[in-house]
Amino acid sequence: xxxxxxxxxxxxxxxxxxxxxxxxxxxxxxxxxxxxxxxxxxxxxxxxxxxxxxxxxxxxxxxxxxxxxxxxxxxxxxxxxxxxxxxxxxxxxxxxxxxxxxxxxxxxxxxxxxxxxxxxxxxxxxxxxxxxxxxxxxxxxxxxxxxxxxxxxxxxxxxxxxxxxxxxxxxxxxxxxxxxxxxxxxxxxxxxxxxxxxxxxxxxxxxxxxxxxxxxxxxxxxxxxxxxxxxxxxxxxxxxxxxxxxxxxxxxxxxxxxxxxxxxxxxxxxxxxxxxxxxxxxxxxxxxxxxxxxxxxxxxxxxxxxxxxxxxxxxxxxxxxxxxxxxxxxxxxxxxxxxxxxxxxxxxxxxxxxxxxxxxxxxxxxxxxxxxxxx
Length: 375
Prior knowledge:
This protein is mainly α. It contains 15 helices and four strands.
């Protein structure tokens, strides 16, 4: 009971220290409010107002129909340019797509030949380039088919293909971006806050005060973990309630309570990583550099940015040792697909094992650091 009381009092001390740090407080509030809103609304993965230009060398009825088939919100109004303006325009970034309709295109098509339309794509804008190329192909093909049939009619296919989009019927990127940003911010803040708590003790000289008290390294480290994890968990819960479900109107399919229970296990692992990094780093700038080396691979290779199935098998196997891989997996299953405990319990178990290993490793290194400081 005495040990638990020490852990509780030390944790309260950490919360008071955080309360007196306006920079970190502002950082926490922004990350789970304005940061999520900005990522969800400003970084859309959909084609929207893509700049497009057309070189109409045919000047025919069909070429006119093709030009007028491009309209908002996917494309801006096509700009008619000359052939020698293609390269300067794309070099300057004025157009993402440029269509070159060759001379006698309509005549060759009616004669049964197979003329081609050149589509120039600025692939530096990867998302718009990939999606927009498919849109352009479908639009041009549709206009040509209708022109050749001389009337607009639906083509009767020999089979009926029924597409049902589950979990995100409108394919709205905001639904994905906002929830994934909450997931990523939980990982980032758990490491930042616990690491900063260790460095703050060293920079303020209070670490020596703790060493002369009847406290163990286990109590000191556990207090930092539970205090900072509680802050991150509360901020994430409020963000899901008021930002994601409230302001952004993103529906949550599963149990938020179950997700937060899993987040506690994830925070146990990542907060231990934060203590480990805070013990290695001697200052906040060093800690920031270490964060870049750790947080980027954790977030990019965990399956939150790109599917794990598209990664090399070696990377998939290595990332099974990372807590973020299991966290992203069960978070998506619960929040997107409404999965229950019977589905996600293997991920919970994996996080318990990984978190225990990380905690013991961080505790050993933290104890060694304290022993060195006492000498």
